[in-house]
Amino acid sequence: MGIVNACLNVFIFWCIYRALYGGREEVDGITFAMVTTNFILSIGFGTAFSLDEGYLPYRIQTGNIATELLKPIHFRGILLATDLGNVCFAVLFRFVPSVLVAIFAVGMERPCSLPCFLAFLVSVGLGFFVLWTLNFIFQTLSFWLINTWSLQTIKNVFLNLLSGSMIPLWFMPDWMKGVLYFTPFSSIYFEPVKIYLGQMAGIEMGLSFLRQVGWIAVLAAVGEWIWRRGIRKLVIQGG
Hints:
single chain, 239 residues, mainly alpha, 70% helix, globular
């Protein structure tokens, strides 16, 4: 069903942008094939980056967090290992099949070159860790909140809108592109896609990698700070 859901999303977005393009192959220098490639890869990554957003909140609510804290490894390492296992499964059994179906059904651009494709894979990996550290911050808020579902939902809405997954950032106003440059959202999906299409090279690509690494460091530090404050106030009754 995950494969069906991903393919259905691709087909829906393809129909929407086909209608918006009105039979034209290019709008403001952005070809329809580029847009198709963007949402195929973005939707595929959204399917592959399978993160358990309720892992920490559930353990706090049930009291099982006490057992987790007794283990000889940082809780963040446990959570990361769990999510990486889910991602590996999702890549093999959801991402690859759904992208193959999309390629044969609607078509997409090939990577501009082998070096670009390799750089794209590196950027995808960094984008995952940007998303993971951001998700960890929202999970740690469960030390103060009974339920983080609403905040996670709001975060996912902003992620879909501002990461280029739903609306490619090519079509955003120039002022908004400048604002999004200083947020972690574009580093998750859109910048890897630009590298795949050959729209980044040399210094610009290097700056993109540095920005992704910078966001990982900043978000990881914020998450660790919130985690330490939450642990100090944690009280377990039962569990």
